[in-house]
Amino acid sequence: xxxxxxxxxxxxxxxxxxxxxxxxxxxxxxxxxxxxxxxxxxxxxxxxxxxxxxxxxxxxxxxxxxxxxxxxxxxxxxxxxxxxxxxxxxxxxxxxxxxxxxxxxxxxxxxxxxxxxxxxxxxxxxxxxxxxxxxxxxxxxxxxxxxxxxxxxxxxxxxxxxxxxxxxxxxxxxxxxxxxxxxxxxxxxxxxxxxxxxxxxxxxxxxxxxxxxxxxxxxxxxxxxxxxxxxxxxxxxxxxxxxxxxxxxxxxxxxxxxxxxxxxxxxxxxxxxxxxxxxxxxxxxxxxxxxxxxxxxxxxxxxxxxxxxxxxxxxxxxxxxxxxxxxxxxxxxxxxxxxxxxxxxxxxxxxxxxxxxxxxxxxxxxxxxxxxxxxxxxxxxxxxxxxxxxxxxxxxxxxxxxxxxxxxxxxxxxxxxxxxxxxxxxxxxxxxxxxxxxxxxxxxxxxxxxxxxxxxxxxxxxxxxxxxx
Length: 469
Fold this sequence. Notes:
cell membrane
């Protein structure tokens, strides 16, 4: 039997997907930049555990709002306009957060940035899925997660550099502003770059067909699918049109089946989003500097550990991009769930060994400190090669065309609310014991394995028009 030859993918497709994925970079940067500022903000504004938990996580409420309205914005004004809205919100948040006078100002501007993050979290994977050939859609969709982890790395790296230059996160730096304020302000630059680059990419062909502009849709498809045959182009436009008959202005009721309940595929999307957050990954990226500092590491060493963890996250995301279209989505998720359950359980055991140091502060005695560090980084490895990128790939492709935008908005909103629940509760939970916190996350990782095995469908190699309820 002859082996099918996959069509050549034009470099322009990768460039277009990379520009869209820059929203993911800002997503990662904006959500992780608070990591280096937590202790300084808490000290400057005199916050307790509950207040700092809300200050750190408040952006996620804005993200849920942005994710919810991203679908209607994208369907009414287009994917490109939605990305521009995200860029403006993120740029405004960067400046506003760095110049706040009090904690409630910070909460406001962080929520503005959160709206931008929420919009980007929905639009980027949907847009990338809609302009990608099926046989590379997983890899191109994974660019979103790669951009997110690069944004996290950039945020944590810049946090460490700014704190080092100033002599501490609370110390003054340029123009008399504390280093933690500059940690927020620097995000203005990539937000502006993102907004400008979006001006140079084409609109989604599926949006263009939905709006009746079949000629422009064919032009875009010619660019991204390497189709030079006019008859083949018209057939593809016709296939898209047929799949979009009921997609025009989708409503929440379109997500329900004949019995009135949500369609199974919508529930699966929501639970994928919830489990991605309930395994506690963002505790590592939002609180790791504070966490390692709290168990005896210096502030400088805590920043270094956090940056090293973000580098690990970037590297394993590259591995995931190489594997997602070869191994498939479901096997990667199952491997990740099993690995996270084991490493989180080990972290819980390590933190159970913590005791008071000479000055009464919490310490992890040897060999538990080193073991906890190894376990934390292995946990990031298992997440980064699976649930990090694969969930975004699945959310961008798993829904039928007629409900994709609204279903993705619902799933992404659920993800941000789950993220808020975990992030805001961690400081209070940590006061009761870090061992308890990581045991809870380990239990959710184990539940996620059962969910993957029994509920998640494989989508590798399927066209978007083949997705079913």
